[in-house]
Amino acid sequence: MAQIIDGKKISQEIKDELREKVGVLKMAGKEATLAVIQVGDDPASGVYVNNKKKACSYIGIRSLSYELPKETTEEELLALIETLNRDERVSGILVQLPLPMQIDEDKIIMAISPKKDVDGFHPENVGRLVIGERGFVSCTPAGIIQLLKRSGIEIAGKNCVVVGRSNIVGKPMALLMLRENATVTVAHSKTQNLKELCRQADILIVAIGKPQFITGEYIKEGAVVIDVGIHRAENGEGGTSKKLCGDVCFDQAEPLASAITPVPGGVGPMTIAMLMNNCVEAMQSES
Question: Which of 37, 85, 119, 147 has the fewest CB atoms lying closer than 10 Å?
């Protein structure tokens, strides 16, 4: 029976630790402030933004909300970011993605000050990760490291396979696992013999965006399986089921794995917890 890695419980532990830290800093007259910008009214983005605001409220981080119409121009958004970059009260800036088509996401990411880039997407912070310097790390990969460590899972010396090479998850995940002294292979859509490669993994981290793609045939007995994906499975009547699933077929993977993250309740809650951690770090680095 696999150990179920409880992301809800671990993320709550982190938020409680941050709440205590923020309370101490407030007594010293220091306050963290997160500016959250949402362009348009995408329902999924709205849910994510609200969850971030709730986390800020719980921990004691002040949040500023900028809800802009979907017609907002790139120039208008860049001007707002520049204002927030200059505002000494603002510790972190978050622009909720995706953005409307008229706005270049890369240009927006580049415009955020690396010192306030709490998402960890700015090329300067990515570069710092590559060369081992301190900087903000993309929240989902950082959260996975915490899931592993706080679940008592040894990383050093282990064979890790990361399935997926996105800038937000796959690439930074591989770099973080290297930093923790794992031996790392990055697999992707062009990888040959993917099943055989995955079956060599002591730690298999899956972020490919394909529902239940990784079946039991991909998993070595005793492996740790981290599922980053989240999808709505269309297995109800008329395809209307709201059941969530990941990139891994949990029912097939769980009997083989030594530890596994569920979907939902695994990796997902950790992303916001680590965003909050980055906000607190941004405020501390200012002081």
Answer: 85
Longest dimension (CA), the chain: 57
To the query of whether residue 96 is one of the catalytic residues in this protein, the response is: yes
- Domains of the chain, residue spans: 31-114, 139-268
Bridge partners of residue 92, in order along the sequence: 34
Q: Is 185 exposed, middle or buried (0-12, 13-18, 19+ CB in 10 A)?
A: middle
Q: Which two tokens stand for residue 237?
A: 């009547």
Structure tokens at 158: 């282990």
Taking only Cα atoms into account, the Rg of the chain, rounded to an integer number of angstroms, comes to 19
Q: 63 phi and psi, to 5 degrees?
A: -120, 135
Residues forming beta bridges with residue 205, ordered by sequence position: 162, 226
What is the arithmetic mean of pLDDT over 247-258? 97
In one-letter notation, the amino acid at residue 262 is P
d(CA 275, CA 272): 5
Query: Do 139-268 and 31-114 have the same topology in CATH?
Result: yes
Beta strands in 198-260 (DSSP E): 203-206, 224-227, 231-232, 244-245, 259-260
- For this structure, is 119 an active site residue? yes
Top CATH class of 31-114 equals alpha beta
The catalytic position among 6, 15, 38, 52 is 52
Statement: residue 279 has pLDDT above 50: yes
Asked if residue 228 lies in contact with residue 207, where contact means CB atoms within 8 angstroms, the answer is yes
**Nearest-angstrom CA–CA distance, 17 and 124:** 28
- Catalytic residue (choose from 6, 117, 119, 227): 119
Q: What's the whole-number mean pLDDT along residues 216-230?
A: 97
Q: At residue 234, does pLDDT exceed 80? A: no
Q: In CATH, what number does 139-268 get? A: 3.40.50.720
Answer yes or no: 146 catalytic. no
Side chain identity, residue 165: R
Do 278 and 244 touch, CB atoms closer than 8 A? no
